[in-house]
Design goal:
It contains 15 helices and no strands. It is mainly α.
Length: 377
């Protein structure tokens, strides 16, 4: 299984879900700080989240904290713990009547499945979320944001399947919905990442000028938030464009900037992508020593990332088996209740029929005797 460099998209989309899920605790400076630290200091965000979770009793607020912990672990590429936290959020969401919260959590779960390349599970979860989305007020911030996230996930799936044209259509719809949100600052991170992915779509379609413009817009939105990891991703994308044009010096200049920005993020996938690009550029420039240095770093990052993914997939399989067993048990119980109902109904009908048959037979015998008496008289 291969999780590509756009995994940062899941982080941003999940962070954006806090805008929807955590409105009731938006006054809490600790939660605000944790949400901001997810980009460049996920360990601090996790520490804050765990402390908040110990004190929190409200279900809705607990869900927001679980989403925070899930997303912060994604930033560290700890997919196993991330998946556990998001499943806890999903379980709690099923106990609430909050339509907005249920929608947001389902979309967040779909994002995680998409990043694990469990595309059928992701689409299945999105379809479930769509039923909730239809019931949200038209043009409400929650509906706009969740619709944008939903289309973004679909775009990511098509992009992963090398269908850049359809992916581009989905991303543009996603952008359109994010742009309608009145609180523009809440969408800057999303806009940065969507444009980053749009850049790659154009790059795959060999429309380099459009790709360059998209990567630059991605950088601009990242700079508005001072989001180092987002800017690093966009710089890496721009560097790939220059590499394709054999402008290796320009590409390396951008990659060195990206490497510097990503130092404290602990983002395995970001660093993996940067080291891969650097090694390839050094090789193209005829610098085998530097190629070997960065190629080694690339494989080290790749190994760490794959180990994390493997653990997460195992938990996903176990969870899927539990859900299947639960559904099978529900079906068996439903079948047993139905069978008992049919037996009881059938028995009642038979009893009633026997009663009527016996009653009619008695009445006929009575009439028969009366007729016999009349004949004799």
């Amino acid at each position: 299984m291969r999780i590509r460099s756009h995994t940062i998209f899941m982080i941003i989309l999940l962070v954006n879900s806090f805008f929807v899920c955590a409105q009731s605790i938006s006054h809490d400076s600790l939660l605000k700080k944790a949400r901001l630290d997810i980009y460049d200091n996920p360990d601090h965000a996790i520490a804050i989240g765990k402390n908040l979770l110990k004190k929190e009793k409200d279900i809705n607020k607990s869900i927001s904290v679980y989403l925070l912990l899930s997303t912060a672990n994604i930033a560290k590429r700890n997919f196993d713990e991330s998946f556990q936290y998001i499943l806890k959020a999903k379980d709690l969401a099923q106990k609430t009547n909050d339509l907005k919260l249920q929608t947001s959590v389902l979309v967040s779960v779909a994002i995680q499945y998409q990043q694990m390349e469990l595309f059928s599970k992701s689409l299945e979860t999105l379809n479930e979320a769509d039923r909730y989305l239809e019931r949200l007020p038209k043009e409400s911030p929650e509906k706009l944001i969740e619709t944008a996230r939903s289309y973004a996930i679909r775009g990511m799936i098509y992009k992963s399947q090398s269908n850049s044209e359809i992916a581009l259509e989905k991303f543009l719809i996603s952008i359109g919905n994010f742009e309608k949100v009145k609180m523009k600052k809440t969408t800057f991170a999303n806009m940065s990442v969507v444009y980053y992915n749009i850049g790659y779509c154009y790059l795959n379609l060999n429309e380099q000028e459009k790709a360059r413009q998209a990567f630059i817009r991605s950088i601009q939105y990242a700079e508005k938030l001072n989001a180092k990891s987002l800017k690093a991703f966009a710089l890496k994308g721009l560097a790939e464009m220059y590499k394709q044009n054999r402008e290796n010096e320009k590409a390396l200049g951008l990659l060195i900037q990206a490497e510097s920005l990503s130092q404290n993020t602990g983002d395995l996938i970001l660093n993996e992508g940067i080291y891969k690009e650097m090694s390839e550029n050094y090789l193209a420039m005829g610098k085998p020593d530097l190629y070997q240095v960065y190629n080694k770093k690339y494989f080290e990052m790749r190994f760490k990332r794959e180990q994390s993914e493997l653990s997460s997939i195992n938990h996903s399989i176990n969870n899927h088996n539990r859900e299947t067993q639960k559904k099978a048990k529900e079906l068996r119980n439903k079948y047993n209740y139905l069978s008992i109902g049919i037996i009881l109904s059938g028995s009642a009908i038979i009893a009633i029929l026997i009663y009527f048959i016996v009653s009619i037979k008695k009445r006929n015998n009575k009439y028969h005797k009366e007729i016999q008496l009349l004949i004799r008289s």
